[in-house]
Amino acid sequence: MTLASLPTPRTPDPMDAPTLRWGVMGPGWIASQFTQSLQAHTRQEVVAVGSRALPRAQEFADKHGVRTAVGSYEELAALDDVDIVYVATPHPAHLEHAILSLESGKHVIVEKPIGLSAGQAREIAAVAQRTGLYCAEALWTMFLPKWDVVRQVVELGGIGEITSVHSDYGESFPDGHRVFDPALAGGPLLDLGIYPLAFVTSLLGPYESIAALGQPDPHGVNGQLGAAMTHAGGTLSVISTTLHGFLANQVTIVGTEGVLTVEPTHHSPGPLTLRYADRTLTYDEAPGNQASGLHFQAVEAVRRIAAAETQTPLWTLDDSVVALEASDEIRRQIGDDLTAAGLHE
């Protein structure tokens, strides 16, 4: 069916969510963006920050008005006045720190990727199930209002039957950035490509087959790659990602009756366009950055915890596993072996 207009988001007001006390594990750039977003748009309280280096934690606490800074992740997980932990440490530490937080009785959201592999995601999911605590991957795009509009368009049959999904994500990084460090699981796939993988698998389901090609970067990591995947029902997806420059960074969802485009930058707040043969519909959302959108994943966690739920249907742990299964196979095909860098998968 064709739509007369695009639906409005069903996303509740972030200010209406109950208040929980948050601990930030790892005082890096994304943690700063996350904290700013919570403080600007919600009633959540960031009460503690932990780092392996106490001066770094204290600097973060002073910058953001956080009352407690500790010099180890174990100390942070043990704090009685922390209800939920945001794990924002480097990728190779997500498995250890998610499990540490859950075993310490804390709900947790884990910065993407939740793990280096589908196997690591399954390990975290098993601990979350055993402890009965909330756990989710902080794949923030899936919690943005515009992605709820995408879901509704698909649910309503607003583009007919989906036939293919196309998505890319490329950026340019300065020398010395962690994405060039093999020991930190560098390369574009887990930092950037995880978004296109999430988009296509959320819309089309697990891959049935993959054909992937990649090229190395001089720093010793993969520099760019492309992959085509088949999915159930004769559907197709195509993704690409690179460290070597900015791509269109959009999602194109092709259906039998229309084409829905998540405009650049696809993973951040911004507009949508639905094109039919005879007209174009738009959802106008002001483009934003992480600080204007990271809070949606946090308040979704809070609402689920208040309802005694341990996962969110917006991006389940099974969803995280499915996306990482595709990542695993792409890495296998392009020869991006993380174990060669001494990383546990």
What does this structure look like?
The protein is of the alpha/beta class. The protein has 2 domains: 14-141, NAD(P)-binding Rossmann-like Domain (Rossmann fold), CATH 3.40.50; 146-288 and 316-341, Dihydrodipicolinate Reductase, domain 2 (2-Layer Sandwich). 32% of the residues lie in helices and 23% in strands. The chain contains 9 helices and 14 strands. An 8-stranded mixed β-sheet has the order 8-9-10-7-11-12-13-14, with helices on one face. The chain is globular and about 60 Å long. The model has no long low-confidence stretch (mean pLDDT 97).
Large-scale geometry? globular
SS-derived structural category: alpha/beta
H/E series: EHEHEHEHEHEHEHEEEEEEEHH
Radius of gyration over alpha carbons? Answer: 20 Å
Number of domains: 2
At CATH level 2, the architecture of the largest domain is: 2-Layer Sandwich
The CATH class of the largest domain is identified as: Alpha Beta
> Biggest sheet, in brief?
8 strands, mixed
CATH topology of the largest domain: Dihydrodipicolinate Reductase, domain 2
Helical stretch count? 9
Distance between the termini: 44 Å
For the secondary structure, the number of strands is 14
Strand content: 15-25%
User: What name goes with the CATH superfamily of the largest domain?
Assistant: Dihydrodipicolinate Reductase, domain 2
The low-confidence runs, each spanning 5 or more residues with pLDDT under 50, are none
Topology:
Layout: E1 21-25, H1 29-41, E2 45-50, H2 54-64, E3 68-70, H3 73-78, E4 84-87, H4 94-103, E5 107-111, H5 118-131, E6 135-138, H6 145-155, E7 162-170, H7 188-204, E8 207-216, E9 222-231, E10 235-242, E11 251-255, E12 259-262, E13 272-275, E14 280-283, H8 295-306, H9 317-334
Parallel strand pairs: 1-2, 1-4, 2-3, 4-5, 5-6, 7-10
Antiparallel strand pairs: 7-11, 8-9, 9-10, 11-12, 12-13, 13-14
Helix pairs in contact: 4-5, 5-9, 7-9
